[in-house]
Design brief:
Layout: H1 2-14, E1 49-60, E2 63-76, E3 82-92, E4 99-101, E5 105-114, E6 118-127, E7 141-152, E8 158-169, E9 180-189, E10 198-208, E11 213-229, E12 232-244, E13 252-261
C-alpha cells in the first residue's frame, strides 16, 4: 500500500512532463496566408481552450485507476503571450474504486519570444493537495517549473525539447515520499500530408532524486479535428502511453478526450 501511494504521487508529479504541449497551430501563425484549424500542437501560440478527458492507468499486479479531468485556459498579456489554465480531476483509486475529487492544478505559461523559426517559453504549475482521499492525489502541494525551446522546421514539423523540475512543497501525507524529480522531455510534431489527423510524439526521461531512480515514458497523441464548435476548433484525441524501466510507477495508460481551442 505504501509503495502504491508513493507511485501515485510520483505519477501525479510527472504526468505533465509526459504529455504533449497544448495550445496552437501545426504551422506557425506568421506563415499562414489563410486561417488554419487550430489543433493545439504548437506550444508557443496560446489560445482559449476547454476540454474534458478520461485516462485509465494500469499499475501492474492487478491495480489500476481512472481519471476524469476538466480543463479551461485563457491567454492574456501583450500579444496574448501569457496564459492561465486550471484543471479539475475526478478520479477513482487503485484500491477503492469509488470516485472523488483529486488535486486541482493551476498552470501559468509565458512565451518569452517567438519568430518564424523558433520560440521559447516557461511554465509554472502548482498542484494543490485537494484530494478527497489519500489514494486520489499526490499527498502534498507540488510545484512544477519547466522551460522549453521550440524549433519550427522548414517542412512544418515542430521539435520542442523541455527541462522540467518538480518539487513537493511542505510536509507530505503519511505513506508518501517527498517529491523531487527532474525530467527531460522531447516533444515532436511531424507535418503530415493531411489535415484530417495530427500526431505528436512525447518521449521523456525522469530522474527521482529522493529515490535515486530513473524511468522513461513515451506518449503518442492521435488527434482528429472535428470542425467548428462553440466558436472554436474542436477535436477528439487518443493518447496511449507506455512506461519503461525497473522503477516505473505504472505499466501503461490510455487517455481519450474532447477539446475546443480558440473560441
Amino acid at each position: 500500500m505504501r509503495v502504491l501511494l508513493a507511485n501515485l504521487a510520483f505519477i501525479g508529479a510527472t504526468s505533465a512532463s509526459l504529455t504533449a504541449s497544448a495550445l496552437a497551430l501545426a504551422t506557425p501563425a506568421w506563415a499562414q496566408s489563410t486561417p488554419e484549424v487550430n489543433n493545439g500542437t504548437d506550444p508557443t501560440l496560446l489560445a482559449t481552450s476547454a476540454g474534458i478527458q478520461y485516462k485509465y492507468t494500469d499499475f501492474g499486479s492487478g491495480f489500476s485507476n481512472g481519471l476524469f479531468e476538466a480543463s479551461f485556459g485563457v491567454p492574456f498579456g501583450q500579444g496574448k503571450n501569457k496564459s492561465l489554465s486550471v484543471t479539475v480531476p475526478y478520479a477513482s483509486g487503485p484500491i477503492d474504486d469509488s470516485f472523488g475529487f483529486g488535486d486541482v492544478s493551476l498552470t501559468f505559461t509565458h512565451v518569452l519570444d517567438v519568430n518564424s523559426s523558433r520560440g521559447y517559453a516557461y511554465t509554472a504549475k502548482l498542484t494543490f493537495d485537494t484530494a478527497d482521499r489519500l489514494d486520489l492525489g499526490g499527498g502534498q502541494t507540488v510545484l512544477e517549473l519547466s522551460g522549453f525551446y521550440a524549433k519550427f522546421l522548414k517542412d512544418g514539423s515542430i521539435i520542442a525539447p523541455a527541462l522540467v523540475q518538480t518539487i513537493g512543497l511542505g510536509d507530505e501525507d503519511p505513506g508518501r515520499s517527498k517529491i523531487n524529480t527532474t525530467t527531460f522531455d522531447f516533444y515532436y510534431v511531424p507535418k503530415l500530408p493531411t489535415d484530417k489527423i495530427f500526431i505528436t510524439f512525447d518521449p521523456a526521461l525522469i530522474y527521482d532524486w529522493e529515490r535515486d531512480e530513473v524511468y522513461a515514458g513515451l506518449s503518442t497523441t492521435f488527434g482528429f479535428p472535428m470542425g467548428k464548435a462553440f466558436g472554436g476548433d474542436s477535436q477528439i484525441f487518443i493518447k496511449p502511453q507506455i512506461l519503461a524501466g525497473a522503477n516505473r510507477p505504472a505499466d501503461w495508460s490510455l487517455q481519450v478526450g474532447y477539446k475546443v481551442i480558440g473560441f
